[in-house]
Amino acid sequence: MPTKPVFLTQFLIEEMREHGEQMPDLRLLIEVVTRACKRISIAIGKGALGGVLGEAGTGNIQGEAQKKLDVLSNDILMEANEWGGHLAALASEEMDEAVMIPEQFPKGGYLLLFDPLDGSSNIDVNISVGTIFSVLRAPRRPTGPLEESFLQAGTQQVCAGYALYGPSTQLVLTIGTGVHVFTLDRELGSFVLTQRDLRIPADTQEFSINASNARHWEAPVKRYIDECLAGKDGPRGKDFNMRWVASMVSDVHRILTRGGVFMYPLDAKTKAQGGKLRLMYEANPMSMLIEQAGGAASTGRERILAIKPGKLHQRVPVIMGSKNEVERVASYHAGG
Ligand SMILES: O=P(O)(O)OC[C@H]1O[C@](O)(COP(=O)(O)O)[C@@H](O)[C@@H]1O
Ligand SMILES: [Mg+2]
Ligand SMILES: [Mg+2]
Question: Where does the chain bind substrate (predicted)?
Answer without folding.
Answer: 118-121, 210, 276
